Amino acid sequence: MAARRVYNWVKGIDSLFQAAVVQLNSDSDWERNWLDAESLIRQAVGAGAAFVATPENTPFLGPHEEKVRRAESLDGATCRAFGALAEELGIHLLLGSFAERSDDPDRCYNTSVLFGPDGAMLAAYRKIHLFDVDVSPEVRFEESATVRAGSESVVARTELGGIGLSICYDLRFPALYQSLRNQGAELIMIPSAFTATTGRDHWHVLVRARAIETQCFVLAAAQQGRHDDEGLRESFGHSLIVDPWGTVLAEVEGGAGFAMAEIDLDRVVRVRGQIPVQEHARFEVALGPTPRPD
After folding, report:
1. Higher-confidence residue: 228 or 286?
2. How far is CA 104 from CA 97, 100, 109, 146, 294, in A?
3. pLDDT above 80 (res 292)
4. Class of the 3-271 domain?
5. pLDDT over 90, % of the chain
6. Catalytic amino acids?
């Protein structure tokens, strides 16, 4: 399991608030993507959201080599824009992910960034599991060709509770989510650009499973539709908010938009009390011995 990092462990948690997930159809036009995201974030806040999350690859979803060329630092234009918006609106805001510059000229990080109501960066998470698959002629992808894997799991303790960060393909690796639960997560973020082919069969099942097994709220903001990466990619959409029982509270079924639901952290406490899986878990038996290399 990756190393872990915990940010900003604070008191005074607000146990009841409105959260929203934004659904986008990003492309290679940074300005258009920013304006679309900004508009929907403002609409969600106008409807009462105190916490808004955007999808994976919010500012750019186009040719992968171009993504690397455009990669920025954590204090670059993209993070400054989202931090300033969070401060202006007085909200917690998750930039689902952007291309963060690494020290490898051929690869960037796929990085999720959480901002507080003062605009400060509360946490940054670099995607650990990279999407290298050969599902079908329509779904062949090698994310590791242009993206460098992260190595640390991240939970931010905020005024809205413990927020665990993950990105898209991480969804298929439940041990990461158990680690986030163990570190104090009460809400888990899964910003995504899940493919239409895999999303039809796996998206709802996996998102609900991660909520049920961790007994956390899950906010899964998603990309939808086709993107301008030579027509090779179509995202499934269906941005979700799921409660700790696995109930879907809100969903954006099609097109750009947002969905909002009430987050009641007392619900986390109640569900964990009803089925205390954390106390029952026998990790030493379930995980077994560490495999030895041949």
Report:
1. 228
2. 19, 11, 10, 10, 31
3. no
4. alpha beta
5. 83
6. 56, 127, 168
